[in-house]
Write a structure and sequence with these properties.
Layout (H helix, E strand, L loop, with lengths): L25 H36 L1 H8 L4 H26 L3 H31 L15 H38 L5 H27 L5
Helix pairs in contact: 1-2, 1-5, 1-6, 2-5, 3-4, 3-6, 4-5, 5-6
Length: about 220
């Protein structure tokens, strides 16, 4: 299909959707977009996989220190944030469903709600960071810990801040994406919005899934 070709699978009453010149039809274009996101997520899994591997090695080396350090994490805030992100996954799933049904106003509202929940997660996490600072748990800046476990605890909190910080960056990107598509859905912008919102949903669910693994590793080491 040449450049400027037009898809024929647009919903009734809407103008045909354009198909890029490198694709044969709209279905192939949608499949390529989905595959591209899955490949991107695979690279992100490799990134976080290295961090989880480092965590596993360090925990095996310093089990008692990791248990002692984990008891200094804020279980209430960590659990609250887990519930917050699970809620955001639900609202994102509803947004994807609404966009697929061409209920764009509902999709816009749900995407905005998802972004707002993400902001709430970030606010809770930053509050937790402030408490960590007051508790002298930030490496390099003001770290102080029981000398019996200091070496392993220092390593634990290095991993804690690197992993949760990386997760927070990914979440911030997800919030920006959700707000962008909320704006486009509200304007009923032309294009393949349902497929694009679904692809954005894949990214959001990935961010949530990473936290589901971080939560027990960081907060529940000595509490199970």
């Amino acid at each position: 299909m040449s450049a400027g070709a037009i898809a024929t699978d647009a919903p009734r009453g809407e103008p045909p959707l354009p198909v890029a010149h490198q694709f044969d039809d709209a279905a192939q274009q949608a499949d390529a977009a989905s595959l591209g996101m899955w490949l991107f997520l695979a690279t992100e899994i490799l990134f976080f996989g290295v961090l989880f591997f480092a965590y596993a090695v360090a925990r095996a080396r310093f089990p008692d220190a990791f248990a002692a350090a984990s008891r200094h994490t804020n279980l209430l805030l960590g659990t609250t944030n887990t519930a917050v992100l699970l809620t955001s996954s639900f609202t994102m799933a509803l947004a994807v469903h609404a966009a697929g049904a061409r209920r764009m106003r509902a999709a816009a509202l749900l995407l905005t709600l998802t972004a707002a929940i993400g902001v709430a997660f970030a606010a809770i996490k930053l509050t937790e960071y402030a408490l960590d600072y007051r508790g002298h748990l930030v490496p390099v800046v003001n770290f102080a810990f029981d000398p019996r476990y200091a070496q392993g605890a220092l390593l634990f909190f290095w991993l804690y801040f690197v992993t949760t910080g990386a997760h927070l960056v990914h979440l911030s990107i997800g919030v920006a994406i959700a707000l962008t598509f909320a704006w486009r859905c509200a304007r009923r912008a032309p294009g393949r919005l349902p497929e694009q919102v679904e692809t954005a949903g894949l990214y959001w669910h990935f961010v949530d899934l990473v936290w589901i693994f971080l939560y027990p590793c960081l907060y529940l080491v000595a509490r199970t």
